[in-house]
Amino acid sequence: MRAAVIREFNQDLSIETVEDPICPDTGVVLKVSACGVCRSDHHGWSGEHPRIKPGRILGHEYCGEVVEAGPLAKYKVGDKLIAPFILACGSCHACQSGASNTCPDQVAPGFSCQGAYAEYVAVPFDHNLVPLPDNLSPKLAAGLGCRVTTSWHALNDRAAVRAGEWVAVHGTGGIGLAAALLAKAMGAKVVVVDIVPEKLEHALKLGADAAVNAADGRAAEAIREITKGGANVSVEALGIAATTNASIECLAPLGRHIQVGMPIGKTAVMEINMNAVYMKNLALFGSRGMPAWRYPSLLDMIERGQVDLTPMVAREIGLSGASAELKAMDGPTPPGTAVITDFLS
């Protein structure tokens, strides 16, 4: 099969013909229909992620059609499926208690095994997969494997956002933009934060109530002014100390901070303003992925037309275009995300 392979960190991915994946007994092989290019992939491409070594195929935001099924698989050849990036074992205590996104035996394509920057991908533990609705295009469905589901779980299941609350979103990349759209659909008021004016303008056009340019370092103060006392919920979508502290400091008393951005490498351990947490009685939530059984709550919302995710995809690219997207993440990026939909170019 054709695949984009890391051979050197911070260099163009190598477009190669590699062995087709072997079908797991407990899973399937998908012919990949679409795969998102995510900032988490950038951590692997740059060498920051400890699991990623040369030879890895990235790609964890994908959907596709089953071309081979293992003897213990749930799905069959021809099924069109969406894959969450966390593939949980299904039998451990975390899985049995409903928190499969914390499964200690989880598999994460693109990180702990080969991913979907390729024509085909092997998916173990296929009970995690969900059918692709007929009215949802593959390019949009790919984002449901990571950025959209992650945001939904953070807002709905972790922070329990309520209609009328102010939600601040720090960073308007894939996860941040998804969080802004979903929060609005939940009836919240949204203030977005970024350092790229075009991304702030884009979010405002999509319904955000206010926008703050964080370039001057006053984001938290500006949010407290806009919301007249602070946000009720704040989403950190980058994984760095500056935005984490801005997220904590922008909150009103009894506010909820959600850490969605992935702290890794030099940012894995950071200094944060615990005095703000203490003085304002704040709650801090970690949020990564979403349990597979929660998909219907999101898919129903999308199918009812309660939220329109089409503005999230700005660019459809070929497999060979993934390198340019990853390189662009070294600095500020334009609005919207890129999705690989052509695996032959």
Helix-strand layout with pairing:
Layout: E1 2-5, E2 14-17, E3 28-37, H1 39-45, E4 62-69, E5 80-83, H2 93-96, E6 120-123, E7 130-131, H3 138-141, H4 147-158, E8 166-170, H5 174-185, E9 189-194, H6 197-205, E10 210-213, H7 219-226, E11 231-236, H8 241-249, E12 251-259, H9 274-279, E13 283-286, H10 295-303, E14 313-318, H11 322-328, E15 337-342
Parallel strand pairs: 8-9, 8-11, 9-10, 11-12, 12-13, 14-15
Antiparallel strand pairs: 1-2, 3-4, 3-6, 3-15, 4-5, 5-7
Helix pairs in contact: 4-5
Structure report:
- The protein is of the alpha/beta class and 345 residues long.
- It is built from eleven helices and 15 strands.
- It has helices at 39-45, 93-96, 138-141, 147-158, 174-185, 197-205, 219-226, 241-249, 274-279, 295-303, 322-328, and strands at residues 2-5, 14-17, 28-37, 62-69, 80-83, 120-123, 130-131, 166-170, 189-194, 210-213, 231-236, 251-259, 283-286, 313-318, 337-342.
- Strands 3, 4, 5, 6, 7, 14 and 15 form a seven-stranded mixed sheet that branches. Strands 10-9-8-11-12-13 form a six-stranded parallel sheet, with helices on both faces.
- α11 links the parallel β14 and β15.
- α4 crosses α5 (174-185).
- The longest helix has 12 residues, at 147-158.
- It starts with a strand and ends with a strand.
- The model has no long low-confidence stretch (mean pLDDT 95).
